[in-house]
Structure formats: C-alpha cells, structure tokens
Design brief:
Layout: E1 4-5, E2 9-11, E3 17-18, E4 21-25, E5 27-31, E6 34-35, E7 39-41, E8 53-54, E9 57-61, E10 63-64, E11 78-79, E12 84-88, E13 91-92, E14 96-98, E15 102-103, E16 106-117, E17 120-128, E18 134-135, E19 138-149, E20 152-158, E21 171-173, E22 176-180, E23 194-198, E24 201-203, E25 206-209, E26 213-215, E27 218-222, E28 230-234, E29 237-239, E30 242-245, E31 248-249, E32 252-256, E33 259-271, E34 274-276, E35 279-281, E36 285-286, E37 289-293, E38 296-308, E39 311-313, E40 316-318, E41 327-330
Parallel strand pairs: 1-6, 2-7, 3-8, 4-9, 5-12, 6-13, 7-14, 8-15, 9-16, 12-16, 13-17, 14-17, 15-18, 16-19, 17-20, 18-21, 19-22, 19-23, 20-24, 20-25, 21-26, 22-27, 23-28, 24-29, 25-30, 26-32, 27-33, 28-33, 29-34, 30-35, 31-36, 32-37, 33-38, 34-39, 35-40, 37-41
Antiparallel strand pairs: 10-11
Length: about 325
C-alpha cells in the first residue's frame, strides 16, 4: 500500500519485472502505488511462464501445491483455487519495453479472480521487442473471473509496428490485451468464464499491433466451450485514438474500435460504449480474414451477441486488404 518507484528497472532474465512487484504467487492486494521508473526488459520470450512485465506488477502466477522435486523431470503441481489479485488506485507514467506479455499496470495474470479498478496509465510508451499480448492496463488475463473498472489510458503509445516484431501472433488492447483459457501447466487449467470491463477510457493514444487482432478497449477474448461464459464491455469510451493492425496476417486480422476479436463463448456484450474521432485500420497484407469494425471487428463462434446502444462519432474505418479469404468492414461490427 502507498508505495512509489522512480528508479529505472533493467533485466535480461526470463522472469517478471514490475515497478512495484516483479512476480508473485497467491493472494495480492496492491493499493495506491505509483511507478515513474522506466522498465527495460530484454529476456527471451518462450512461453507463458517467462518474461512478463508491468508498470506495477510483472506477473501473477498460480501457486505450487505440495512438495516438488526440482531434480526430477515431473511437472510441478499447480493450483489456482486460492489465488486472487486486487489492484486499486495505482498509476504508471513511465515507458515499458518487454519481450513478452506486458501491460501498463500488470503483465500476465493467472489467478482465480482478478479485480482492477481506478488505475491510470498515461504519457508513456509500451514497446515490444518480440511479439506477444499487451494492453494499456493488462497484457493478458487467464482467470475464472476478471473485472476491470474505472481505468484510464491517456496519451499512451502502444505501437507494435516496429520492424523488430515479425510474428503474426499476439494481440493489443487499449485496456486489456487478451482474456483466455490457461493452457495446461502441470495439472492446472483455468477456465476464462467471466470478464467485465466497465467504465474504462482510452484517449489520445495509439493502439497498434503487428499481429493478430487489436481493439480500442479489448484486443481479444477467447472463452472456448465454457458453459455460461460471458464477456461484457459496458460504458467504455475510445477517443482521439488510432486502432491499427499493420501485420501480415495468416488467420484473423481483426480490428475494432472497442473489441478486436471475440472468439467462441456463450455470451458477448458491448453496451453503451462510444468511439469518437478514432481511426480503425485492418491489415493490407494478408492471406486470412480481415475485419474492421467501428465497435467490434470479429465475433466468431459466439452463441449470443448483444451489441447495443453504442455510438461511432466522426471516425474512419478502413479495410485495405486484397485477400483471397473474407474481408469485412462495418460501422458497428464487421463480422
């Protein structure tokens, strides 16, 4: 509680790096903390367990359960049943350079529940070395239940169009990069059942990806075949912001003013959201599907979609792709 960092953090390791906390496991409550120190991480990215970075905390991971013999080749036994992350009233105003999943507040979160509220990221650059998932507030969340409320991203440059980034994978979101299931790690698998993003705002920023999908609020949600799963984005706004995918896409080149890609699940809702003076552009070089929508790029495999009471004001939605596959463009939703 009430901690502040102003010093530079540099690391070449494959662990987590954060302005306040590097990596933690278990239950965390972080309140009223600020990071003003630049974070420069250059460790190699190989999978979800490495090189995750955030302005406040780099990585929250599931706990080991019981004894583990590190000399053996057996996987450790993980559990997420007692894990929880709460971050409130925190702020990051400094640049972050990362080789893997990262965000302005938190990099990667694997936890049973997540509650992030009243956090601000402003006047900084979030810069990729390679290509993974990143967000203005959080890079990636793998959680049974996650809620992000009353958060703001202001004058943040999330430009993944650098020549260093050559991968066709990874997503970017103005608030959250990616919400999805946990791949098996040992015996652990978390089901991404419930995501709520409420009253969040992205303003005067660049939300760019050289990869799969990007959204002004949420890059992508993928909830698989989970029964009664739900993703809801409510009362959010994107203003004076570029939402652009510059990658060479092999699958979904989805770009949306609010959400880029919603991929499988039971319920997907975008309600009472607004996009004002935004620029939405999907990839021009692709062999896959390219969708550009003022509110949502692609909704695929969702049983029930509710997109209502949303406004697009003085904005530009462009689909320059010449593709052998599908290319869709819509003022509200492309596909």
């Amino acid at each position: 509680t009430n901690c502040k960092n102003t010093g530079m953090i540099e690391t070449r390791s494959s662990g987590g790096a954060g302005g306040i906390f590097g990596e933690g496991r278990g239950k965390f409550i972080i309140n009223d903390c600020t990071n003003e120190g630049e974070i420069q991480a250059s460790g190699q990215y190989s999978n979800d367990v490495n090189a995750n970075n955030g302005g406040i905390i780099g990585k929250v991971y599931a706990c080991y359960s019981g004894d583990y013999d590190w000399s053996s080749s057996n996987n450790p036994v993980y559990t997420a049943e007692d894990t929880e992350l709460v971050i409130k009233n925190c702020k990051n105003t400094s640049n972050i350079q990362s080789p893997a999943h990262f965000g302005g507040i938190a990099g990667m979160v694997i936890s049973n529940t997540v509650d992030i509220s009243n956090c601000t990221v402003e006047n900084c650059k979030l810069d990729d070395i390679y290509s993974a998932d990143k967000g203005g507030i959080v890079g990636i969340i793998r959680s049974n239940s996650a809620k992000i409320t009353d958060c703001k991203v202001y004058k943040v440059d999330m430009d993944r169009s650098s020549s260093q980034v050559s991968s066709t994978y990874g997503v970017t979101g103005g608030i959250l990069g990616h919400y999805s299931d946990t791949p098996y790690v040992g015996n652990l698998q978390i089901k991404a059942k419930d995501l709520k993003i409420i009253n969040c705002k992205v303003e005067d920023s660049k939300v760019k990806v050289k990869g799969q999908s990007t959204g002004g609020i949420l890059g992508a949600t993928s909830q698989g075949s989970i029964t009664d799963s739900i993703t809801s984005i409510v009362d959010c706004e994107v203003k004076n912001t570029e939402v652009i995918n510059t990658g060479k896409v092999m699958t979904y080149g989805s770009v949306g003013g609010i959400c880029g890609l919603a991929y499988y699940g039971d319920n997907f809702n975008i309600n009472n959201c607004k996009a004002t003076n935004i620029k939405v552009v999907c990839p021009g070089e692709t062999s896959g599907d390219t969708d550009a929508g003022g509110i949502c790029g692609t909704s695929f495999g969702i049983k029930r979609v509710n997109i209502s009471n949303n406004d697009i004001i003085s904005s530009n939605i462009t689909n320059p792709a010449e593709s052998d596959s599908c290319g869709n463009t819509g003022g509200i939703i492309a596909f």
